[in-house]
Amino acid sequence: MLRTDRLLCRLHHFVSRSCGVHHLNSYKESDRIVQRTLSGCFGRGDLNHNNRSIITENVNKDRIRDDIIICQRSLKKLYHELFDEALEEYNNKQTRRDRKITNYQEHIRHSRQEKEFHEAIFQVGNREDTGLDSDMCKEAAAVLEEYARSFEERNPHLKLFNAVIHMDESTPHLHLDFVPVCDEKRKNGMRVRNSLTGALRQQGLEGEGISNTITMAWLEQEKEHIGQLMLEHGIEWVKLGTHEKHKSVSKYKVEKLREEIDAADKLLDMKMSELSSVEDQVRAAESTLEDKKQELSESEENLSSVTVETEKADAELSKKVEQINRTLKYLPDLKKHEDAEHEYLVAVSELHDMLKSGMSILRNKESIISRIDTLKNLIQKAMDKRDKAELTIYDLRQRGEEVTTERDNALEKLNAVRAEKSALYSELKTVKAENMEYSEVLAMLERIAPTILRQAKEMLREQQQREQAQQLAYQPPKKKKSWDLE
């Protein structure tokens, strides 16, 4: 920061010396001064004459091609652009047809108060000293052209539509044709209207009675501006009818240089303020960037933890599914049941055949006893299997309910973990985007003001070290355990 101040001070000293001393002494009163008069008045506004649609006797036809055309626009189109909207608003408010205005340009043309357009004529010098064949002719035309091209910048309420510098008469002179526009709220009448007095008043001018009307004040204001342009071209304005002379060329240049020095001072102050603002922005960006980096690190840690929990939940769910599949293997074997049932039916059928007659019973006594024992064994086995199946089904139902509950809890936990993981991904994406923005700002500042950025980083690092030192200084000492030995 101190190095920047020294550079700015040297720049300020250099500007002051180079502009304030050397140049002021270089302009001497011996500079060549050309004196000319300056005239200005309101004309009658003959567009045919101005645009050479009609050529009068005082016009040199061979020099018409030398005329300088500044602006030539359609007056009719200009009226539509300026007043159509306000005219429509005005007509919509009228209840009587005879009060509505059909054509505003025609309305003004037949008005007794306002003119369709106004014309101002300005001339530098006269036919004796600034004629068409004189050395100052082109210089005077250049002054008038520079004035005409900046006319609407100084007169925003005077809309120029025709401007010509005549170089084909005795002396170069400028015709300016314009429409005055006054925009103000009115109880009656149009809001935007043609009014020279109103337009000049809105430009900040006021009249002082008949001796100095508002239009005369405007003419003098414009002549003053042309007089300044004449000085820039090495011409001194001599006012007719008075002993007053305009500023000399040397005095004008001295004042101009002083204005430039003042402007340079203001520019230096403004740049100093901008540099201070840049330093504040650098500090803020550094601090915010550190915070975002910390948030990014924490988010990545949280995301890693959630990822581990997700993998763990997936493993638990897979384990539960495997347990269910193993439990399903304990269900009764239907094929074995079918074989036992078939053996039972065969034994019953054979026993039934042996018991048909007394002779058959006597003859098959031992076989009957054997078949009865077989049936007893089959019945006992069936009863044992039934009891075992009932126990197995009961256990399976109880275990199935437990597994279902565990599965639902695992799925709920897994969904919650996945939702948290998605939120953390979104948060991480936002933090990375913000980190990228601050990195771009920091890179831009490094390109614009690397020295200031480096100094700001050093200041921020020193401030962090001071804060850490303060935290260590205020940290209370730990008490040693006595182990009740005292």
Strand content range: 5-15%
Q: Major beta sheet, specifics?
A: 5 strands, antiparallel
Order of helices and strands: HEEHEHHEHHEEEEHHEHHHHH
- Gyration radius, rounded: 53 Å
Distance N terminus to C terminus?
A: 60 Å
Helix content: 55-70%
How are the strands of the biggest sheet laid out side by side? 2-4-6-5-3
User: What is the tally of beta strands?
Assistant: 9
Low-confidence stretches: 1-30, 482-486
**Average residue pLDDT:** 79
Structural class: alpha+beta
Annotation field: number of helices? 13
Shape: elongated
Explain what the structure shows:
- This protein has 486 residues and is α+β, with helices and mostly antiparallel strands.
- The protein is built from 13 helices and 9 strands.
- The strands form 3 sheets. A 5-stranded antiparallel β-sheet has the order 2-4-6-5-3. A two-stranded parallel ribbon has the order 1-9. Strands 7-8 form a two-stranded antiparallel ribbon.
- Helix 1 runs antiparallel to helix 9, helix 9 (249-328) packs across helix 13 and helix 10 (334-354) runs antiparallel to helix 12 (365-448).
- The radius of gyration is 53 Å and the shape is elongated.
